[in-house]
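Notebook B, p. 112. Complex prediction, attempt 2.
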Amino acid sequence: MSDIPSDLKYVASHEWIRDEGDGVVTIGITDHAQDLLGDVVFIELPEAGAEFATGDDLGVVESVKAASDVYAPLSGEIIAINGDLEDAPELVNSDPYGDGWFVQLRLSDTTELDDLLDADGYAELCEAES
Amino acid sequence: MGQKTALYDKHLQMNAKLVDFGGWDMPIHYGSQVEEHHIVRRDAGMFDVSHMTVVDVTGADAKEYLRYLLANDVIRLQEQGKALYSGMLNETGGVVDDLIVYLMTDPDVTGEWFRVVVNCGTREKDLRWMADHTAKFDNVALTERPELAMVAIQGPNALAKVASVLSDGRVKLINDLKVFQGLESEGWFFARTGYTGEDGLEVMVPEEYVADFWQALADAGVAPCGLGARDTLRLEAGMNLYGSDMDEKISPLSANMGWTIAWEPAERDFVGRQALEKQREAGVKQKLVGLVLESRGVLRSHQKVMINGEEAGEITSGSFSPTLGCSIAMARVSANIADTCHVDMRGKLVEVKVVKPSFVRNGEKVYS
């Protein structure tokens, strides 16, 4: 069973969201997602300052197995990207909720946070997919 | 649930992630495909390849039968145990399968006999094809050997680590093995062959002994490796994968298998010969090349290869090369391709280098 921390929020496309307060969130992909992808070898992320609406393509994760789009789980502006992933994409496999984070977003609409799945909801979804 | 090899319980014990592979439940990796790849390039890893199909070809006409069945010529096998890689072709010159054939000799049997190893995904088709082609011969018998499990131990330290778990007699046997040679020892078969571009062994083991053998190897420091790493290793080594890089519609001449066709002696008739001769005369329009992507991204099979904006072929196998740290691929393209071309990667045209389809041997980059 994959790890699904209870303090995070999730979307069905397998991204996790951590509410950092003040309308800022950190985003990454879940343990379940990295397990499905296998070893991650490249990650393409947007530049700081780019703006996204919910559901937009945020980037691409290339693993040994497949290329997979990453979607913006919320609307907002990129305020930070995880530069470590350029040289160490394997962090996504080894620490998907920690050092393997992707981007930080300043939300344009904090009420969107209410639409996210909690850990139980996401666990049910993974269960249903497997 | 698929078929299980005799090592299935070992795979579960060693935390394998299992996938369906040609109807078999096989390990794709035991944690990290990339780490397993590096272990084989740097030390020693082992693969369960028991799903592969072993067929013994015996009888007074065995040799003449194989000279007819295969595009390569088993007459080239002049020493006990020597192995030959060959395509088994259809009448239109397409590849029914690729295989390895070993010249076996047995003191209890008069005459020569052969051991053939074919792919698992093509087993039924191959067995039917092989059986059908015995009709022209009076004395050929085909015996499948499903009771033999097979373990491939590959890497620079593979032979030494295997030796550490064998009896003295078998240690001598493997130390004396030449590259591409396999010999029997009391029901076991040790061959210095593989599918990784590294030195190593493929060992056929009666299935009742294979779990203990596997465990002994693990205890000797040989890492279990899955089919994921096997695929990236063989791709780096420029070895074809049946069903991806060639199939029944593809000529060996368009699959970098020209070297496996024994044209001489010209009077030898083999299945597909006429078609191949016509193709050779007409000129081969497509060939299999290697591609290297020096920028970021991963080449994938079926992506289109473009020359001057025109579609000129497609990738047959593509992946990330853990040894080189960039993406590599094999592609079937117009024979007149230059030393660069473009690949349509998810809608973007990306420039790639065109090289011979061989990227890494014995741990080192080989293309330039």
